[in-house]
Write a structure and sequence with these properties.
Elements (H helix, E strand, L loop, with lengths): L7 H13 L11 H12 L4 E8 L5 E8 L3 E6 L8 H15 L13 E6 L4 H6 L20 H13 L3 E7 L5 E2 L8 E4 L11 H17 L7 E3 L9 H6 L4 E7 L9 H20 L7 H5 L4 E2 L3 E13 L2 E11 L6 E7 L5 E4 L7 E2 L3 E5 L3 E3 L1 H9 L2 E6 L4 E3 L7 E2 L15 E5 L5 E5 L2 E3 L3
Parallel strand pairs: 3-4, 3-5, 5-9, 7-8, 11-14, 16-18, 17-19, 18-20
Antiparallel strand pairs: 1-2, 2-4, 6-10, 7-9, 11-12, 12-13, 15-21, 21-22, 22-23
């Protein structure tokens, strides 16, 4: 992580985060039970007001934490999508630091100038099930008009009653976004959402864009090639766009991947730095020095700019046609299942991993029929692979997998023996020296 010549106020909050963030929130996912104790501890601080502002479908409380008593109103909410936990940890870190540490860039009376409201997990049911949607199966962020979800109604009621000047809509994005055409992950992406299809920029949206420019400036010393700007196509049903229409300067922050950081702790830290930079810019009016050009200088947040694995220039065959192509694979973060994403010329596609398999010949996918119980040891599995069998056909309950390797068992034979997108990433390849190499759930296994 690049740390040369850091922005001085940003370095102060970053250093405090290093010392004072909550260690037990360093997890792949966060549920209500993971944060409840932290929320309760913050609520006990004499500068904090804690309010239960509603309940999820299951009855789990939705809590708002408030600090400050000033006329400038900020509202931030997290985990509207239950499987997007990074900013939940970040806002709890930020509030803890604000309450317990002295920041030289903040006046000692800052709490008389601003009121900060935090909803640190809007969708606890989705968080419990690690799903995007709530218990009803509804995407809360597409419920801003219909308001069919209790969680969506809670958020809209808070916007209507609090009338925030600035609203922070905090999300996670999938790991495959890149910051422009750099091929680098977009670890943080920003957006000042449109409030109308014509994307008009009024004073509130201008301020949002100026604040984003300040936030990007503060974190670019740590993420010089990992900051993106999200597409601002108007979304009629989304909360960010509808809240922007109320006159709030609305800011979307999407937390993304960073190489070697599976729990997105770098994005977590950068959220804290960016939010603090926005607060300081608001209280000092420094945001006014930023222009629209500063906002649009942030590279586009490019969707599908990355894949998990890319196998370059494999020799494939379809019917009687032989051809060379790249094969890309993505791995689901929840299930761990690897799926073929693309086949073809993927020379412009970047990947987290690029196995050295160029020129290998992909063999026809053959399934081994299992009609009775099978104890699949590693030795037996490697033998079957060497014989050309890459998956099993039958009842997967018959197989006791003792090999330590992924196994694909399907009820019926695959419809064709060649690779296809959106199918499990299992195949065999032959090296030019005749050795068989297996790809099992995206994992390369040598020496079959």
């Amino acid at each position: 992580m690049h740390t040369a010549h850091p922005h001085v106020p940003a370095n102060a909050i970053a250093s405090l985060w290093d010392k004072h963030h909550t260690d037990n929130l360093n997890r792949a996912h966060l549920r209500f039970s993971d944060i409840s104790q932290v929320v309760e501890q913050l609520a006990q601080h004499n500068a904090v007001t804690s309010s239960v502002v509603g309940h999820a479908c299951s009855g789990t409380p939705i809590t708002r934490l408030t600090v400050g008593r000033g006329p400038l109103i900020l509202l931030a909410w997290t985990q509207m999508h239950g499987d997007e936990p990074t900013a939940t940890a970040a806002v709890l870190d930020w509030l803890h630091i604000l309450l317990t540490q002295q920041l030289p860039s903040l006046d000692t009376n800052w709490q008389s100038l601003v009121t900060l409201h935090f909803i640190p997990m809007l969708n606890p049911d989705g968080a419990e099930n690690r799903t995007r949607v709530n218990a009803q199966g509804i995407d809360i962020n597409r419920d801003a008009k219909a308001l069919q979800t209790p969680e969506g109604r809670v958020l809209w009621e808070q916007v209507q009653s609090l009338k925030p000047d600035v609203a922070f809509n905090l999300h996670d994005q999938n790991p495959y976004y890149t910051a422009g055409e750099t091929g680098e992950t977009a670890t943080i992406a920003f957006l000042a959402p449109a409030f109308h299809v014509d994307k008009h920029v009024d004073a509130a949206r201008l301020r949002a864009k100026q604040l984003i420019a300040c936030m990007a400036d503060a974190i670019q010393h740590w993420l010089p090639r990992h900051i993106g700007r999200y597409d601002d196509t108007y979304s009629l049903r989304s909360f960010g766009d509808n809240i922007a229409a109320t006159g709030a300067s609305t800011i979307l922050i999407e937390s993304g991947a960073y190489p070697g950081d599976p729990h997105r702790q770098i994005a977590r830290k950068m959220n804290v730095v960016a939010l603090q930079a926005a607060l300081e810019a608001l209280l000092s009016n420094q945001y006014m020095h930023k222009s629209l050009a500063d906002y649009y200088r942030i590279p586009d947040n490019v969707e599908d700019g990355l894949v998990d694995i890319k196998f370059s220039q494999l020799q494939l065959r379809c019917f009687d046609t032989a051809f060379n192509a790249d094969v890309t694979v993505n791995v689901c973060r929840k299930s761990g299942k690897a799926t073929i994403k693309h086949i073809g010329d993927m020379s412009v596609q970047q990947a987290f991993h690029t196995p050295d398999t160029a020129g290998m010949r992909v063999l026809p996918q053959k399934g081994y029929v299992v009609n009775e119980p099978l104890s699949l040891t590693r030795e037996l599995y490697l033998q079957r692979l060497a014989e050309g069998w890459v998956y099993f056909i039958g009842d997967d309950g018959h197989i006791t997998n003792e090999s330590g390797l992924p196994v694909l068992c399907v009820p019926e034979a695959l419809p064709q023996p060649w690779l296809q997108p959106d199918t499990p990433a299992y195949w065999l390849m032959q090296h030019d020296n005749g050795h068989i190499v297996a790809v099992l759930n995206g994992e390369v296994v040598w020496g079959c």
